[in-house]
Design goal:
Number of strands: 3
Distance between the termini: 73 Å
Structural class: mainly alpha
Helix content: 55-70%
Strand content: 5-15%
Largest sheet: 3 strands, antiparallel
Shape: elongated
């Protein structure tokens, strides 16, 4: 391309600091004009991000070199590359499973805490330690939180849904 650059990477290149798309621009003030991508958040005049950019020719050369690298690996040993990529995917999935297990444990712990708090509050109400108004207000809050945690727990494992304990099932002695 002589003198003009195209915008092949528009919408694909993101700012490392703020995550916004980099906008294409041209610098014609130099003796050799060049195209570049700059942070569009900075370009809006909000000054919410710093003025950083990458020249089009540098980005193009980098992308081309990476494409050549990966195509070379495919041509050299496709099976080995496939195993490498699948292994990376497995590690990512293992990390996601570990994160989900931690979230599940946290949700189970909080739901158990809310259940205990609700039971203690009922005992306090029965003993006359708290007023009817406070009991009603707190029981509504705890029941709402119980339902929320139950729904979150159900979303972790849809095959074995946990049953929400409503006031009606509690009165009937059902779990």
């Amino acid at each position: 391309m002589q003198g003009r650059y195209n915008t092949d990477f528009s919408g694909l290149v993101k700012c490392a600091d703020c995550g916004w798309s980099l906008s294409y621009g041209e610098n014609r003030q130099n003796s050799k004009p060049y195209g570049h991508y700059h942070c569009s958040k900075y370009g809006q005049g909000t000054r919410q991000c710093s003025m950083h950019y990458i020249r089009y020719d540098v980005l193009y050369a980098y992308v081309l070199s990476r494409l050549q690298y990966w195509s070379g690996l495919v041509q050299h040993d496709e099976e080995r590359l496939l195993k490498r990529l699948l292994n990376a995917t497995d590690k990512g999935q293992a990390a996601a499973r570990k994160k989900q297990a931690a979230e599940l444990k946290k949700a189970e712990k909080r739901k158990a805490e809310v259940d205990t708090l609700f039971a203690r509050m009922y005992e306090d109400w029965a003993a006359g330690c708290i007023t009817e108004y406070n009991f009603s207000m707190l029981s509504g809050k705890y029941q709402s939180e119980q339902l929320n945690w139950t729904q979150r727990l159900n979303s972790f494992n849809p095959l074995s849904p946990l049953k929400a304990r409503t006031p009606q099932t509690q009165k009937n002695g059902l779990p």
